[in-house]
């Protein structure tokens, strides 16, 4: 479990977090959704240890191995698809296990036949699939994903979301997913945290008990959760932009 206890963080002159507390549950996907600039990336960076809190405490991350998916794929362009995964696995698993993991994860996202291609030969969606694959394959205690489906069109995005659901079901892990898109949260979140504008506070905390394989966005209870998230986000938006 990752525990943020009354965390405060200022970046430059911006008070991003103030007395922020959250417990991230083990073996579940926690989605974080909220207005642009409210501090979602900052939260992930604090959990990853890339930033330190000014006040408060973060526990459960000491010695933890973290996998991080950024908004852009961040691939090693001079390495092949398989080598991109092998790179993060070196010194972590045996060479034989490395080959097994590469095959298993590339097959799961339909990229095994591209294992010897270089990233420049892949489409944007394929590159992001590889980045996700690499993050899942790395043996981690928790996986942090920052808008991993951003800049993909809707069909591609939904395909990738379904793929992440399948990978997670094959190997349930502790995941924190930051997204702008309610649909991502409905399809992947066991728990959805809706944040306010800066400094971020938790406006809603929704648990979705439907198994990932059975999620259908037009079948209750998901439309109800969709309406609930939208209402909270719209009310928050009205506070920030009363004239919109
Ligand atoms: N290094 C920095 N120095 C000063 N201010 C920063 C820095 N990094 C981020 N900020 C500010 O902190 C606030 C929170 O940024 P953060 O990236 O965490 O928000 P976010 O919710 O992830 O935004 P978005 O949804 O638009 O990606 C923003 O107002 C941003 O401008």
TrEMBL record:
InterPro entries: AAA+_ATPase, ABC_transporter-like_ATP-bd, ABC_transporter-like_CS, ABC_transporter_ATP-bind, P-loop_NTPase. Gene3D superfamilies: P-loop containing nucleotide triphosphate hydrolases (3.40.50.300). One of its GO terms (molecular function) is ATP binding. It comes from the Bacteria. Transmembrane segments: none annotated. Its EC number is 3.6.3.-. It comes from Pelotomaculum propionicicum. This is Bicarbonate transport ATP-binding protein CmpD. Keywords: ATP-binding, Hydrolase, Nucleotide-binding, Transport. PANTHER family: ALIPHATIC SULFONATES IMPORT ATP-BINDING PROTEIN SSUB 2, TAURINE IMPORT ATP-BINDING PROTEIN-RELATED. Residues 2-222 form the ABC transporter domain. Pfam families: ABC_tran. It is an enzyme of class 3 (hydrolase).
